Amino acid sequence: MSANSNTALPYFQRLQLQFSAHIRDPQNTAYVPEGEQPIESRRLIAYQELFFNNIESFFTQIFPVCSDILGKARWLEILREYMIKHDAHTPLFHELGQEFLQFLDSEFEPQADDPPFLLELAHYEWVELALSVSPEIDFEGGEKTSATQLSWEHAYQLSPVAWPLAYEWPVHRLSAHCQPKQKPEEASTLLVYRYLDQGDAVDSVPQETVEFIELAPLLYQFLMALEFASSAQEAFESVAKPYAMPADQLQTFAEQTLHELVSLNILRPAC
Q1: For 165-196, how does the pLDDT look when each residue is reduced to its tens digit (9 = 90+)?
Q2: Pick from 71, 74, 69: which is nearest to 115 by CA?
Q3: Which of 23, 74, 148, 161 meets the CB 3.0–4.6 Å disulfide criterion with 194?
Q4: What is the homologous superfamily of the domain 40-132 according to CATH?
Q5: What CATH number labels 147-269?
Q6: Can you give the pTM of this predicted structure?
Q7: Can you give the residue ranges of every domain in the chain?
Q8: How far, CA to CA in Å, does 167 sit from each of 98, 185, 194, 215?
Q9: Could you tell me the end-to-end alpha-carbon distance of the chain, in angstroms, rounded to an integer?
Q10: Which residues contact 247 (CB under 8 A, 6 or more apart)?
């Protein structure tokens, strides 16, 4: 909404727009309609700091590696750019991470020194929070499948709280001291999953925990193919052809992984 169109609004709404615009971009006074008295900056300083510090603290918790790689000054510049440009559509604080990803994807104007992997790294860091608060729940009903119940002829389903991930950059290895300049030839394939950690102590309270597993590309493709295959055998055969290893070695590797993922309750036979 332009400053001129604000003049048709009631005075209290014009004040609200002045307030929110000033909080987003304290250096810009163009939002004040002509002939109208701006809110005194000294009255807004505390609110400016409160809003910005809350955003900075929250986003730094969600994206600690992004913050570390960019450095404090550049990280704060990007957060200010986010506040100025992005119109968030959620009142839920824990969903602001996804809003930040939308900003990086469509509104952010990177500088020459900004890392090319920033969006992928931010997504990787956000996934942990996203899965921890996801309303999806693990497999319901029944006992965990034992190794003796497994069959290569069964169809299998992936747990709703297990998400396969693929990135062009090795996001799980990035840090202030590890920043490749070129994309690797092979994508980084991962699995993030949530489980109930029973703890070691007898009286410990179970806690939901999010973990990441690095997957070989074959296993990532295998998991993705399981959703549409009538059996694990069919899923495996659909993705194994490009690999140079002997088929029996590949299948042994895939069967071992199948057993491991079933034991972690990440996979189970489809009903």
Answers
A1: 999 999 999 999 999 989 999 999 999 999 88
A2: 69
A3: 161
A4: DUF2063 (1.10.150.690)
A5: 3.90.930.50
A6: 0.84
A7: 40-132, 147-269
A8: 17, 11, 20, 12
A9: 54
A10: 240
